[in-house]
Specification:
Two copies of one chain form a homodimer. By secondary structure, chain A is an alpha/beta fold. The first copy, chain A, contains 13 helices and eleven strands.
């Protein structure tokens, strides 16, 4: 089994040793076979390799990813965002159960850069998705740890690819919306849901810039009891606001729906709407184009970040950049002249 | 006169020779004196130097910019955008006349990257601002030519600095909204106006993503005659949509106003609103913080672009990047592994 891209040949008998003492070594070949069979234990082991920062683990992880990508499984990737308190967990628990009841296998992943500090602020406690966590057709995995959003996104993307190869045909990636995490989720998924809650006046405010325009479906959750009329009002307000935006390149007209996760009202409607989106975008090739665009997005983003960091990790360059920033703020150099100076410094220091 | 930042000493007697045969050479010192006096002829000559791509001209332009920045003149920078047909020229002509009547001096600049192809699609014909073009307290300058938006933004920013040093205390920068030009205008100005026109249903749609959220003031133009009731409807729709967004860091609540440039209705109201914004953001330090942030924005943006282009202008690197993109699309390499490969290529080729 030769892998030209990585310039390494895969030895299916290579033994992978996991840190936990009770784990017996598993060969790469066994990992591949296990993933193909949809073995949850093996899948978890493989994801641990993807998340590892050890060079040896990464080399094996790259082989696994290569193997999984080439299986080209069909899948639907759903992105879900919403501020804390809108009831995302219960929503995902209810929607996920609906999805599984229609004979799908579901993996729920999360991107939550804040959890690097307070580990496990999202999905750490599996019990917050009570029904899914007890269902063998659901696989829940907390946010991977990494020192930047790019790293989290990479690990989430590769975990998703492993899950798809293991037979999970539906993926939900959720985020609480810290920093640029919604953009990361948007660039990892096929369809993007924004969960809102009913509220009048001030409570309606506060959607982060750009989020509403990314959403394919707006779900107003907690549309039950006394909040029902507020939810209807919110639906009208958001529907009218969405009319102001440019039509989407997907030709999809964003939908605003109300639901109640606790009363399990409207969830089927949302699932049907997700499927309508899926059908439209498969038919008009938007889905495949978007996925290709996403691959190039991650290539471009990661390349630019890594190239910049390559230089800025050098203390002399970083210090000089900071010195220039001070001068720019003091108006003793213009931003554009400062760029010429910084580039000259880099060229003098590094170039052949 | 020594200029440490540029490592060149300024010789005020150096002669600048302009291309037009009838121009007599002007010394750098005379350019500085002329700008300080607000001499329009000298200002135009100085801007021509800023726009020039000749190395000698750029060196003199840098000295001029340095000189002008250090004068630290007070100014108000207004950004204006709107799709073609909303009546931007007449709006600026009317608003500008109002501004000049209150004893200000006004410079009108434009960012229109499309004009590199069809030169002069904006502001090329000064007669489209009839009153301003005949007023000695107004200075109108068409879009500078450059091969990318970054270049246009740099030249516009430096032209603005020259104009401010020449006593133009109010600057309007307009754009027709091609590509990322609104973001460029937003990052060059203190207050951002979006000009709209009344229209029902479909006509209300079509605002480019993110633009509405950047605007401090939405002006619904052409609110006259039969369109008056449509304008009022549009005002209500936009006001309600703006409520959905996060409050601005400026603490300014975006205003939606109607006006008629031809009937000169509502323009004074808009000018007063601009001044309210100005007063608020001076008092709460938002204006100075935003200007500092803008300087660092242009430093960062230009640095990243130039660093990337430094490598991608090399055919071997550019070809390899394209090859990797093909492989990414064919799923024979992941985006993240492709980045490692591209960086390795750059390091092998360039680094000491």
């Amino acid at each position: 089994m030769a892998n030209k891209e990585n310039n390494i040949s895969i030895n299916p008998n290579a033994q992978v040793i996991f840190n936990r003492k009770k784990s017996a070594p598993i060969s790469v070949g066994d990992l591949m076979i296990g993933i193909e069979k949809g073995d949850r234990y093996i899948l978890s082991k493989a994801i641990t390799l993807v998340e590892s920062n050890q060079i040896e683990d990464q080399s094996i992880a790259n082989q696994l990813i290569d193997f999984c990508i080439n299986k080209k499984p069909e899948s639907l990737r759903i992105g879900i965002t919403g501020t804390p308190g809108v009831g995302k967990s219960t929503f995902i628990d209810t929607l996920g159960t609906q999805i599984i009841n229609e004979n799908h296998k579901l993996a729920v992943l999360a991107i939550d850069p804040s959890s690097n500090i307070s580990r496990g602020s999202i999905l750490g406690d599996k019990t917050r998705m009570e029904r899914l966590s007890m269902n063998l057709n659901a696989y829940i995995r907390p946010t991977p740890s990494a020192d930047n959003l790019g790293g989290v996104a990479r690990k989430t993307r590769e975990t998703m690819i492993l899950c798809e190869a293991a037979g999970f045909d539906t993926i939900i990636i959720e985020t609480v919306g810290v920093g640029q995490s919604e953009t990361a989720v948007y660039q990892l998924t096929d369809v993007f849901l924004l969960i809102l809650q009913p509220g009048a006046g001030d409570e309606l405010q506060g959607i982060k810039r750009g989020i509403m325009e990314m959403a394919d479906i707006l779900a107003i959750n907690k549309a039950d009891g006394e909040r029902l009329s507020m939810a209807k009002f919110a639906k009208a307000a958001y529907t009218s606001a969405l009319h102001l935006f440019q039509p989407k390149t997907s030709n999809w007209i964003p939908k605003v729906l109300t639901c109640s996760s606790t009363e399990e009202n409207g969830i089927l409607d949302i699932w049907n709407t997700i499927q309508s989106f899926q059908n439209l975008t498969i038919a008009n090739n938007y889905k495949i184009n978007k996925r290709n665009h996403q691959k190039l997005y991650w290539f471009e983003e990661t390349f630019q970040n890594k190239l910049l960091n390559f230089y800025l990790e050098n203390k002399e360059i970083a210090d000089y950049k900071e010195e220039l920033e001070m001068k720019i703020l003091a108006d003793t150099v213009t931003p554009f002249l400062a760029v010429d100076k910084l580039l000259q410094k880099i060229i003098d220091k590094y170039q052949k």
